[in-house]
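User: Hey, quick favor. My workstation is busy. Could you predict this chain's structure for me?
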Amino acid sequence: MLPHDLVMGVIGGFILWFGWYGFNPGSSLSAMDFGGIGRISANTTLAACTAGLTAVFFIYFRTGKWDAAAITNGFLAGLVAITCPCYWVSPTGACALGAVAGVIVILGVDLLEYVRIDDPIGAWPVHGLCGVWGTLSLGLFASGEYAAAGSSPTGIPDTAKFLADGVTANPAYTAPLTGWFYGGGPQVFLAQCIGSFTVCAATFTVAMIIFLVLNAFKRLRLSREGELEGMDLHEHGISAYPEYVISAIASPAGTPVDVSKARATPKRQVPVESSK
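Assistant: No problem, here it is.
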């Protein structure tokens, strides 16, 4: 099926981007953490821009086209990827993980098409695949400069108090997170791997149970008649895509329009000025 309105899709992507500045900085847990909020905002912007550019250039070198859908999914992939590590990475790290996300989202779409799984808007490559990548990237790109968000009024631990109280004496003050690429070893990365696996396994299990129950009651899939007619007509009694009436040749397979007749109609002959 052709996209209904690509311009509206791009506008929707920009609305999501705008909302991300409330989402990520609002997760710093303290409005007094001015440095952390500013750093999060900058990292969010850098990751989104880098991922969008990487995705659109990746597609351009493949097809020779500047794909608006690719750059939209690209910057959304960067926003998703930076959400987890936005507080703890440097601007360089934000750009690096965003660039990786821009490639991952395109390869994720290719993977779904290869295994014939229907995902019309690329939701799983953006939110699923790049979400896991962003979670793991914390264990790689955490710069070792910042402690847990909200662990102090400024987001930076009071080193003297931290050393005086000891690690176990005052758990409110945590040590800065240091990723593998910054000399921190694999500890944080392995912890993120365990967390990602746990969330994915729990989500998959609960989702499968719900889908099996819905399938048992025959509520998981539309009827064959509804698929052929189109869900808009079948469920709501009106077409959501009246432009298909104008151009029958663009009708998706399964609509009640007789496409074969449309293709058989001879093209309008354009008059050619006779030579003088």
